[in-house]
Amino acid sequence: ESSKFWSLVQLIGNYPKQFPKPNLQRQYPTLKLCSRILGNWSFIEIPDFSKEDLCDEDNFILDTHDQIQLWIGASVV
Question: Gelsolin-like domain: from which residue to which, for each copy (predicted)?
């Protein structure tokens, strides 16, 4: 980046090098099927999911409540 960029985002003051992790309550992960039809997105929750639910033709969001994982099927265009 240019020196002008870095002069605009310069760090002023003391910043912590690490941030404490939030203490999240344990929750069951959720899996959502993501579909786009005619320009509109829909998200359908998959109950009692397993690895076999992840297919090459679809996109999924796995929400573990402290991380989000995206599954982009190999055949998705």
Answer: 45-74
The C-alpha R_g of the chain, in whole angstroms, comes to 20
Question: What is the residue extent of each domain of the chain?
Answer: 20-72
Spell out the alpha helix ranges (H) of 1-77.
3-8
Express each pLDDT in 7-26 by its tens digit.
777 766 677 788 887 777 88
Burial 9-45 (b: 16+ CB within 10 A, else e): eeeeeeeeeeeeeeeeeeeeeebbbbeeeeeeeeeee
Q: How many angstroms separate the CA atoms of 27 and 73, rounded?
A: 26
Pair of tokens at residue 70: 């995206």
